[in-house]
């Protein structure tokens, strides 16, 4: 193979452009930043490495007996005076022999997951950003390989990497590969989706014209913090999207290994003027495998330096497959019309040519979604669950497993997948291979006697450690004693012999260890020109699918390393639950008692069913080591097994002693075991120490209780986004351990502040919500600090809490005013019962706005905060304790009467006018505002002495026939309660208010004694264009928000939709008038529960269906109006015969049949007669 000419290499330029540049250095700093001399050295090193690789191929395939006319392996190493050097030679030969000879990252029959990992070819355009394009594509491919996801899911922006990282580059600047790779680690926030940079670029005044932009600072800001795309804005320096590392690759076989495991390697490439000739215009229509590999013509001139990706190799034909960044030749807009592109953007090139694969200057990147990012929110590497492989424990040796190879496996890929040294894998599987007893390593240089002796000593030690001594009972019969055969001449060889070797005249002498000890001069005499080393080694070859491989990895003692690559199978001691889950439970039990073997641990597994009250059956066990513990395991099918969905454990004693340290730690091993319980929803455990690992957020928990003695670390930021169904969160120190300090770490407890993510209801980049049903948070007894979390009140935080326990921490600052922000417009779904913030470091006065929590907050514990001051603005409804503070007591004006009056005034101020003023005239709106102002000013002092009621009334300026409004107030125990609200007109043809029912619930929920709400003819008036701003439906939450309401009248209000079934829960309701609306749907049978109902008016609607038989249970004294609902059909249920006191008005319905005897009412219904409908009086039933 031809070598690069130094004269040609001196002309190499550092740019990624198709122009021929003149001179020894680039005229503009574009593309690949490398000098002519550097490119020349790269090319020479690549050519030398190819020689080495050919030797390695010969050694791994033929035992080193020669290949072609060269027949030497002297490029592979030195004299092996150290074991490490010889072991490196073995490793390289094993990898080459045990790997696929041909591999491409686009070949779905070879790649993991069966995916094409080569992205669409990038187009760098006229800008010299080839390094940025290559690095971005390498990151993209590594992410896809890591996660086993389509490569186009990770379209990493080359522009953001190139222009936004340190350096201030422009279109014409250029970059070098190591500098670019360092930015992956130092500025990971610029690894962004392509859409982020493209969107920012389009908003630039220069548009998408990269060459015209001299300063990208504004564009770079627009890709992240100022981006309008949530996924882009979420990426920060503290929270990057991806995490990458890189390494230089020092040999062809390491490059190939990296391609198989991460998709690609980044390489320099020297571009010659015959490249466009070999890949001319016709190549644009052909793919990489349809074109011949590039071979540099000896007369070709070097033009410039370039960067690209190696994405495949062919060791049978000695070629690389390279992905370029010049786009696709099939794209009409591609500017390269004369050549240089292919249809798929790839080309093949002969190994050893153009500097491709230069040792130590070719790089591999290893990337994964960063912990906390969208694709790895809980740092649990979720892709591992699909990439972990099954291993069966072997009984012969602890820590050893058996793996059965698949069709896609090679011996080398097994070592790569399980992160096992390939030399160890060979040692444990000698029976699968042949041993070559006379592997030959040929030197081209002479060695001294000391070098010969030390080499033999080293090689003998290494090979016999692997194969045993000669005639050992190992596979292959042991290793021979290595020896040299050296060639020397009595006289200098003829000049024509260049170089002399064993195939030419000369004297050959065998030199083993004994010879060297007795007569070393025999092997080192003058005229010696070369020696060959003979030794035993394993001939690693491809194995058939199904081959059983033994894996012994000391690293597997670490559950972390094991869980990254494998899961255990083949145990099935307790076979009522899935195999992985049995192993996971066993590992948890072996943390409780490390002396338990597998069988003993599995003997304690016993399923029961999760129950909401005492959620599982708890059993007490005593291990052979006298550890007494309580255990409960909930299974989806109860005692019959199924998926594990609940786990409880607590150590009770250790050899009759009770101490904090008898409990296991919530360490990495336990966390990884819990993650294998994929269906776990209840977790209640007692531990000594450890941390709340972010990985636990991947569990779909509804209940989490961790009682600990000495945990540390911080609360995981994104955990609550994972626990979307969580109802109770308890992470607290044991009550008897509040003063306990660990001898090693000192003060115990989880520290840091409450994560800000816990107060952000929606994570914008994923649209993931916090758990809306979370009712109980207990973080007491830790070392939490910072401000108290704003997780009560408001629509953007968790507001469904019932209990909040934060006592015995180190919180500072003031009690948040946000805790008393108004709840959502439909009112609270549950009450805040208890807040405990005792024994913190809080200061300042309590916010006056806490008064908004009256009738919600039952207990507020403030004790033990010496700097907390002021008064408590809460009514006697709330029990407040404040010993050890400067709080003086309850604030003035905090009586029950003050609070109730203030709450009602706020309700009228906030919702009364909004409820009634849609599209009304200005005079009607003025009337509403007048009565609202009157109530706001006078409620609480409006009832005169000696009286028990007061009516606020306003009429329309044109008289009551145009509209009126009355609000009645009654006095009860010294408190004025709004009792009734009545709105209407005195003229039947005139519409009253403009009703907006979305505000009815918020109003009613804040008027606790309201009995009556009447709004007759409160239809929303049309806008001038005939449309309506509001479409009213009946709010289903009304019975919950106004349980004391007795009369609701909304006739002629243009209400649509159905009658909510929840209206059956309005147990105090006596009078319900929904006449003359546009209600549809069936009659809810749930209304039969209204035992106090006297009047139910549903006339003149569009209801359908039949009379529910359940309505026979309605009160006996009831007026039921269903007139003019012509779609109500069927017969009157016979059970209605008992309702002799009910008056039924069924005029103009479509009910047929007869009416039971004794029923009262109007029974003229519609009935078909001669093709038309006529009124028909239902006859009495005869029976």
UniProtKB/TrEMBL annotation:
Q: Check the UniProt entry and state the signal peptide residues, or none.
A: 1-29
Which compartments does it reside in? Cytoplasm, Cytoskeleton, Cilium axoneme
Identification of the protein by name: Peptidase C1A papain C-terminal domain-containing protein
Keyword Signal carried by entry: yes
Q: Where mainly located?
A: cytoplasm
Q: List keywords of the entry alphabetically.
A: Leucine-rich repeat, Repeat, Signal
List the Pfam families: LRR_1, Peptidase_C1
Which InterPro entries does UniProt cross-reference here?
Leu-rich_rpt, LRR_dom_sf, Papain-like_cys_pep_sf, Peptidase_C1A_C, Plant_LRR-RLKs
**What residue stretches are annotated with the Peptidase C1A papain C-terminal domain?**
102-370
